[in-house]
Amino acid sequence: MADFLPYGRQSVDESDVAAVAAVLRGDWLTTGPAVDRFEADLAAWTGGVPAVAVTSGTAALHVAYAAAGVGPGDEVVCAPMTFVATAATAVLLGATVVFADVEPDTLTLDPAAAAAAVTGRTRVVSAVDYAGHPADYAALRGAAGDALLLADAAHSVGGAWRGQPVGSLADLTTFSFFPTKNLTTAEGGAVATAHPDLLARARRFRNHGLVRDPAEQRHPGEGGWHQEVHEFGLNYRLPDVLCALGSSQLGRLAAFKARRAEVFERYRDGLADVDGLRLPVRHPDADPVWHLYAVRVLDGRRRALFEHLRGAGIGVQVNYIPAYWHPVFEDLGYRRGLCPVAEAFYAEELSLPMFPDLTDADVDRVIGGVRDFFGV
Fold first, then answer.
1. Do 189 and 177 contact (CB within 8 A), yes or no?
2. Which Pfam families does this one have (predicted)?
3. What is the CATH superfamily name and number for domain 253-374?
4. pLDDT tens for residues 24-49?
């Protein structure tokens, strides 16, 4: 049998290895100059919006919600077609998550559904750029009213909507740099925001809440060692060694994006005539970075195709179980049926392999496996 083909995989070359090795040979492994450099390099992709590097995409969400002041009594409107962390991090801060359904074509948060879910208690509306396709943030901003708008851009770094880069479309944007994402720092993430107060709160929260500027301290004058905690935070600092990897990866993000687009088009061309599939679409205003190639398998055959491809050594996956289907939300009183569009999509969704190091032969192998299953 041919080697197993994963559905997602990092792309690491010798330039990445050299960048990491240079930090290991230096004086700073963490909280050093590579962090500042990575944040500046990332801001070049967000239209200049400053970024705060953190230890994971989940940490980025936690930091962003904390910066927004999310707490008990608040509501967070959230898309359900996402990894559970988008909602869980709000719950951990004491908020109530209100799930709103998604658009049937892009699977991003439906502005009308979001508007219907917003109340006077809504602190944040959280959209998710599913599969790398940006949500309609212009419409969502209107739907959010007085609430802050958050973009969970774990899938979409490097993308744009109506020519405006991801990272500048919402009040807060969170990124993930897990190995299967569009670039990697091994584990890692970031929060981007153009609001100085949110940026300051994010930076403070990722470093235990420490206040080191004497001008901001309640009891300055103790000495050069003095630091204070005014609000609790956590240690979410991304170390220099991983930030160096991130800067190196950002240097190749344009090439990653281009190759993902080529893979997307090759799948489309090779599967367009398969009646048992519905292929992903691109909104004309979107410039995606395709993190997933998510097909819909019709007529109840998703599981059979999953097992057929896995049996052929092709690593397919399902992304995602609607967040409120997890037992932890069930135990909080959430019930199935809340978001019928998301649930119908989940019943059919299958992610085919998508990463920049896929060869044309790899893509054709996947196409051949799908076509063999359908007998076409």
1. yes
2. DegT_DnrJ_EryC1
3. Aspartate Aminotransferase, domain 1 (3.90.1150.10)
4. 999 999 999 999 999 999 999 999 99
